[in-house]
């Protein structure tokens, strides 16, 4: 078996800074766990524009289609704000998502005990929280036709259309059930089947996929508005939540904030299985390029490191090693180490970006 392959696209701003810490972690797995990755690096976003006049070179796109997983830092920055829309840094990321057909966006909301007081909710409600929202990413109301602003008599009308095909629902549901099997085996599907036909079909197809191919997974259905209430009332009742593009956009942001800082949040976008059975996959922190702190050693690398932990679990079937890495992060936080975005409590130890990466690697060492 060849080594699993990983394409690293660090991008702009703090992207290269946080990715340097992930490289330490990847190096550790090669040296200490005999888990060697075939790593290649390339440019994306403003960095690619500076070198090639395009935010994603065709060769990079081709390489991204071939590797087992892509790990991305962040794109964008004030330097590129006045560029034409067609070559803006964000276009590089959008092209990757579109051409890899990454239809399932995974956003975990995980609350480490040491940070539970950062949440706006009570410690008891969020401590130990570990849920995953699967948002359908390539269809639904953001893409449906007809759309536009039209004249109708003497006023204008804004139109967007929610449209889901059976196959689009089917593949999103499968992603959720597959994930659940690698977690606590529970899926809650959210829509508004009470008032939307697309929601009726959504519920029907999710149930059908479950009954035919995933009867071992515990499935429930919930109206999305109730889901929003339950997320802030008792989020620990959930394991995997699967929902459409619009509801997923809102519910994933809501769930993310249960847990504190943007510097802590990983994500993954998955597509169809490749010939080797692994899904097409792009892993990236939720945060952007943070130009306000770039180049100062202040960025929190944990979101990017946890994105690599997701890659271990969901692309490389290394669930135990993903657990080990998450436990190492938990350990350094419990030890009081804090990058600037997490400072505030008394007794915390301020660390730089590389100080945090080194501490996580040391905690990995201590886990052996
Ligand atoms: P941002 O996420 O870059 O920053 C928002 C705030 O959070 C800033 O104060 C920043 O310092 C802080 N922050 C973000 N990540 C952090 C980390 N790891 N550690 C510590 N603090 C952190 O969002 P903003 O400011 O709206 O956008 C800045 C640039 O990033 C823009 O060009 C935007 O288009 C781009 N962007 C790119 C994304 C991506 O690559 N996926 C996502 C969001 C924004
Ligand atoms: Mg959003």
Low-confidence stretches: none
Give the H and E element order: EHEHHEHEHEEEHEHEHEHEEHHEEH
Integer count of domains: 2
Question: In percent, how much strand structure appears in the residues?
Answer: 15-25%
What does this structure look like?
- This protein is α/β, with parallel strands linked by helices.
- The chain folds into two domains: 1-108 and 262-368, Isopropylmalate Dehydrogenase (3-Layer(aba) Sandwich), CATH 3.40.718; 120-259, Isopropylmalate Dehydrogenase (3-Layer(aba) Sandwich), CATH 3.40.718.10.
- The protein is built from twelve helices and 14 strands.
- The chain has helices at residues 15-32, 46-52, 58-66, 89-99, 123-126, 166-181, 197-213, 224-233, 245-256, 302-314, 319-334, 353-366; strands spanning 5-11, 38-42, 69-74, 104-110, 130-136, 144-152, 155-161, 186-191, 218-223, 240-243, 266-273, 279-285, 337-338, 349-350.
- It has a ten-stranded mixed β-sheet, with helices on both faces. Strands 6-7 form a two-stranded antiparallel ribbon.
- Residues 14, 18, 74-77, 90, 93, 262-263, 284, 287-293, 299-300, 303, 341 line the site of 1,4-dihydronicotinamide adenine dinucleotide.
